[in-house]
Amino acid sequence: MSVNPPNWPEGVARHILDAVDSTNAHAARLAPGLAGSAWVLAAEQTAGKGRRGRPWSSPRGNFYASYVMLPTEAAETVALRSFAAALALRDACVQLTGLPQAFALKWPNDVLLNGGKLAGILLETAGQGTRLSHLVIGIGVNLIASPDPAQVEPGALTPVNLLAETGLRITPEAFLNALAPAYARWEHTFTTQGFAPLRAEWLSHAAKLGEVIHARTGTQTRSGTFESLDETGALLLTTQAGRIAIPAAEVFF
């Protein structure tokens, strides 16, 4: 564990590792011994993963970190922290680059830079019944390298990296030092004011709001105009059959 920088959130542990299987897995292993919350940052992951268990390319120089906490709310409320993470990610990117117009948010959990995918978020929980023992929020950011577009599934956004798009070389530790306080601010807002302010702020930066998008769940794809989010974070689409709420899907533009 390293010495915390001056702006580090109070009461949050900070673990800086050289290599690990995955920061989410390491954070989950730390959880039983935690009194509060912690960030785990690794220079390299040997078994990183994204959504639906897909491998996450993990070259050195990119950002791999996980935030682990011990939530007290119901599982559906805990899941809304994906929006806090997305907002914090965008805030950190804007702070470090000074380019607020370049960053947008893609439902449910991606951050875009100049229309390409810069970062992703993966939430994992453990517990029994409605009681969660811990929440891990995994975050990957393409700081200096991005996957080959040929490796991306058809229709998905092109991956981009911060260095190529902005010319700025940000170290993983410098990025964490911006992200951790940003997340702490949104966590405080969420726990004191609920989801409404996060929903409003997220929508103000949403990619393709008011435009036709495609939401795929399993083998079904539904197309419609992206109207809003509901109070549970579900995607609201206006389709030919009327307005529908989609709680989980992969979105394509």
Concise overview:
The protein is α+β, with helices and mostly antiparallel strands. It contains six helices and twelve strands. It has two domains: 12-204, Bira Bifunctional Protein, Domain 2 (BirA Bifunctional Protein, domain 2); 212-252, SH3 type barrels (Roll).
* CATH architectural group of the largest domain: 2-Layer Sandwich
| Low-confidence residue ranges | none
CATH fold call of the largest domain:
BirA Bifunctional Protein, domain 2
Estimate the mean pLDDT confidence. Answer: 92
- End-to-end separation in angstroms reads 42 Å
SSE class: alpha+beta
Radius of gyration, Cα only, in angstroms?
Answer: 17 Å
CATH superfamily of the largest domain, called what?
Bira Bifunctional Protein, Domain 2
Please provide a written account of the structure.
The protein is α+β, with helices and mostly antiparallel strands. The protein has two domains: 12-204, Bira Bifunctional Protein, Domain 2 (BirA Bifunctional Protein, domain 2); 212-252, SH3 type barrels. It contains six helices and twelve strands. The protein has helices spanning 23-30, 75-78, 81-97, 162-166, 172-193, 196-204, and strands at residues 12-20, 37-45, 63-69, 103-106, 110-113, 116-128, 131-141, 212-217, 220-229, 235-239, 242-246, 250-252. The strands form two sheets. It has a seven-stranded mixed sheet with strand order 1-2-3-7-6-5-4, with helices on both faces. It has a five-stranded antiparallel sheet with strand order 11-10-9-8-12, with no helix packed on it. The longest helix is centred in the last third of the chain and has 22 residues, at 172-193. It is globular. The N and C termini lie far apart (42 Å). 37% of the residues are buried.
